[in-house]
Design goal:
The structure holds 2 protein chains of 2 kinds. By secondary structure, chain A is mainly α. Chain A has one domain. Chain A is built from 14 helices and 4 strands. In chain A, helix 1 packs antiparallel against helix 6, helix 1 packs across helix 7 and helix 7 packs antiparallel against helix 8. Chain A is globular. Chain B has 15 helices and 8 strands. In chain B, the strands form 4 sheets. In chain B, strands 1-2 form a two-stranded antiparallel ribbon. The chains are: A mainly alpha, B mainly alpha. At the A-B interface, helix 3, helix 4, helix 5, strand 2 and helix 14 of A face helix 2, helix 3, helix 4 and helix 14 of B.
Chain lengths: ~325, ~475
């Protein structure tokens, strides 16, 4: 049954997935930033994302705006519940976002803006991971409002998802940079990619095993027949993708690991979706309960149908323009 | 309604005022600057004159910094509705949400998608496509203004809705929602304000460089363009502002009463030039007034009746002291801008536009006037909407999240601190870039290359010219 709320739940999930993938690698670059040499190497690394970071982050704005529009009740509950990590994420994004411009404007303080770029990226990513974990573990709801405390989001699980996302984004960032750079810098990226990959597998594995134990409902979804049967390919495909990344890293194929790693992210994300649907506030509010009326969703769907394909086209065009290895010193600064 | 935590309410309002007030400065500038860049690049393509591409490259670096600050301060806004104003979000989400979603879909992506090409792509895509990218960014800024002002105007003059069992505003007629009664006026007023803001910044920078070097070609061109803008748009803005005010009188008479400092409803009301509206005493103290003029301006009759604040219950009145003074600051600056624009025409006719030093000094002082006027204008319209978020329907006190005052106080402190540091640096960098001469002058004093990029431009531009 495909009603408007379900369509919008799917669209919104897609929007957030696109955000995670796109801003994932550019936040990841920020997390890895201290590992690059000061000066030219850092310039190059930053220039690989300078033309696209702003578009990548716009998906986050669409995620927030879309949630408000399609599921206003969920937005009204989730935001106060995750008050502190959302605030931290915003602050991180501010520092990191302005660093893209500021570091070129002030050579005397370049080091400071480099540090803010790193710190902001790390803070934003860690907070997003916490938001994710806290969201999955659920929140107290009374009537149409959040009724828990200010620190309910803080749990071993949410801290762990925060940590996992930091490594996940860093891994994506490293693979992106392998595609975009050459020479000694690329060699070092290859070297750091393997340990990063192992760390990501370990962390993702723990989160995957931990999640079903957060609630009997998620447990039932994953570990009862016949669902177990349908879902069993998910970890198998994940293992297969991991193997392909490993092989391509060993063969030093610059262009394969990144897209395969995106596949891995998509898969984990789908696993998350399986654990959550049909809720927009896990185990408290369903998609149907939180949905805005059809007159809102329908009006917005027209916009999505018109604009999303256009956005894909010109975003793709922009990536195409800036494709290939980046030359040192490239940029308008 | 149960008791509202007044401290939390005041802090949440302060936080919103602070974050939106800082944020609006950036789009006020980028809306106009994007169009200005498109004009400059268009002129370059048409005439092939180097000065235009130089000015383009000069302003685009400033644009990039302002735009980045606009983006990051804007993301804050899209989440602050939820964190601090969750009840408002729940109730108005079905109407305001789609408007904001349209803004993201039609405007933000367009701007962000083509900004990369605009900043980095000139050598990669060629001149024509690059110009198209610049146009897309400019159009994006306008779309953005369109949707966000539609959303804001709906909160001022709600239309096309019904209210469901859960107390949510539900859309009935999207055409009426988008084109609600105050929207066309507010859109025209704000876009014009953004153009004026940019014109006075560009003019101020041009004037500053003219004061240092009268021969600086780039400074002449930008000063001249800015003054044309001021001469045409500033008087137009006064007219637009006037009809916007009449629209407000029709739909939000309490706001106009606060703007005018009128407490009593009266026929043949005076125009109060200055005074101190006192909400407690329900009168405007120390008023300096011109008899009958208030009625004449607002009703176009000497004896027209004007409703005063006392006609509204005490709990439904906006704070007249703030609205009254913010309005005077805006109008005062607008009038000054129009005078400067008109005076520039006279100087132009006398052929002294580039040598009138006192005028240049005034233009430098007027450079930030647009920002101040924009903030003052928004203060009038937003404080004037109080004590409601959705005018007449949803009270501000009933819009707030169930979040405790300490949480809001903490986040407010963080935003104040971070914005001062980050945007303080940003403004410092912008001023630094403005300090560099737009084009090398002919006098020996200014002939040195001010920035490294200039040599790149000149080689590139000369390549293109040959």
């Amino acid at each position: 049954m495909l009603d408007l709320p379900t369509i919008w739940a799917g669209l919104l999930a897609l929007v957030i997935l696109i955000y995670v993938i796109l801003d994932g690698f550019d936040l990841g670059i920020g997390i890895l930033y201290p590992l690059f040499h000061k000066g030219e190497e850092r310039d190059t690394v930053m220039n690989t994302v300078a033309p696209v970071w702003d578009g990548n982050e716009t998906w986050l704005v669409l995620g927030g705006g879309g949630l408000l529009a399609a599921f206003p009740l969920a937005y009204a509950i989730i935001m106060p519940a995750l008050y502190a990590p959302i605030l931290a994420m915003l602050i991180g994004l501010i520092f990191r976002g302005v660093s893209f411009e500021f570091r070129w404007r002030d050579p005397a303080h370049e080091k400071i803006w480099d540090a803010y770029f790193f710190g902001g990226s790390l803070l934003a990513t860690f907070s997003q991971g916490i938001v994710l974990g806290a969201f999955v573990q659920g929140m107290e709801v009374e009537g149409r409002a959040y009724s828990g405390g200010w620190f309910d989001w803080l749990s071993p699980f949410s801290l762990f998802t925060g940590l996992s996302l930091v490594f996940g984004y860093a891994f994506l960032g490293a693979l992106w940079l392998i595609m975009k750079t050459e020479g000694g810098l690329r060699d070092r990226l290859y070297k750091m990619s393997l340990p990063l990959m192992l760390m990501v597998f370990f962390l993702t594995g723990v989160v995957s095993l931990w999640t079903p134990f957060l609630s009997p409902e998620i447990y039932a979804r994953w570990f009862e027949m016949p669902t177990l049967l349908y879902l069993s390919p998910v970890p198998i495909i994940a293992a297969l993708l991991a193997w392909r990344i490993y092989v391509n890293l060993k063969r030093r194929n610059d262009y394969r690991p990144f897209p395969i790693a995106l596949g891995l992210f998509v898969l984990s994300y789908m696993g998350l979706g399986i654990s959550i649907f049909p809720y927009v506030v896990p185990r408290a509010i369903t998609v149907a309960q939180a949905a805005a009326p059809d007159s809102s969703l329908g009006f917005m769907l027209i916009g999505a149908v018109i604009f999303l394909p256009l956005i894909f086209i010109y975003t793709g065009y922009s990536y195409w323009i800036f494709r290939g290895k980046i030359k040192p010193g490239e940029g308008y600064h | 309604m149960d008791s509202v935590d007044t401290a939390a309410l005041m802090l949440a309002r302060l936080q919103f005022a602070w974050t939106i007030g800082v944020h609006i400065l950036f789009p006020s500038f980028t809306i106009g600057l994007a169009s200005y860049l498109a004009v400059l690049e268009g002129l370059w393509l048409k005439t092939g004159k180097q000065v235009y591409i130089r000015l383009f490259k000069y302003w685009i670096k400033i644009f990039a910094v302002v735009f980045a600050m606009g983006v990051v301060s804007g993301i804050v806004m899209s989440y602050e509705f939820g964190t601090n104003w969750s009840v408002f979000s729940d109730k108005t989400g079905p109407i305001l949400g789609p408007l904001l979603a349209y803004e993201v879909l039609s405007a933000f992506f367009l701007e962000a998608g083509f900004l990369g090409i605009m900043l980095f792509g000139l050598t990669k895509v060629g001149k024509k496509l690059h110009f198209m990218a610049t146009l897309m960014v400019a159009i994006g800024t306008f779309f953005s203004a369109f949707w966000i002002l539609s959303a804001n105007s709906w909160m001022q003059t709600p239309a096309g809705y019904s209210i469901n069992d859960a107390g949510q505003f539900v859309p009935e007629d999207w055409l009426k929602i988008v084109f609600n009664p105050s929207f066309p006026y507010r859109l025209a007023h704000m876009v014009t304000a953004a153009y004026l803001t940019t014109a006075f910044v560009v003019g101020g920078v041009g004037a500053w460089h003219l004061l240092r070097d009268k021969t600086c070609v780039g400074a002449k061109v930008m000063f001249s363009m800015a003054m044309w803008m001021a001469a045409i748009v500033a008087p137009a803005q006064i007219f637009i502002g006037d009809i916007h005010g009449l629209n407000t009188l029709k739909y939000q008479p309490a706001k106009v009463a606060a703007m005018e400092g009128h407490f009593e409803t009266q026929k043949g009301a005076p125009l109060i030039l200055f005074g101190i509206p006192d909400m407690e005493a329900e009168e405007t103290k120390y008023a300096i007034e011109i008899p009958k003029l208030g009625s004449l301006i607002l009703t176009h009759h000497l004896d027209g009746e004007i409703i005063g604040l006392k006609a509204f219950p005490k709990e439904d009145r906006p704070n007249a002291l703030i609205v009254f003074w913010a309005f005077r600051i805006m109008v005062g600056l607008g009038t000054l801008m129009a005078m400067i624009g008109l005076f520039s025409l006279w100087l132009r006719w006398r052929k002294t536009l580039y040598s009138a030093q006192l005028f240049h000094k005034i233009a430098v002082w007027m450079a930030p006037s647009g920002f101040i006027a924009v903030i003052a204008g928004w203060t009038v319209t937003e404080v004037g909407r109080q004590p409601f978020t959705v005018y007449g329907l949803l009270r501000t006190s009933q819009s707030i999240s169930p979040v405790d005052a300490p949480a809001i106080a903490t986040s407010l402190a963080v935003f104040v601190l971070v914005y001062f540091v980050v945007f303080g640096f940003g403004i410092y960098y912008i001023l630094k870039m403005m300090k560099a001469a737009p084009t090398p002058g002919q006098s020996p004093m200014a002939s040195e290359h001010p920035i490294g990029l200039d040599s790149v431009i000149s080689t590139q531009a000369s390549k293109e010219e040959h």
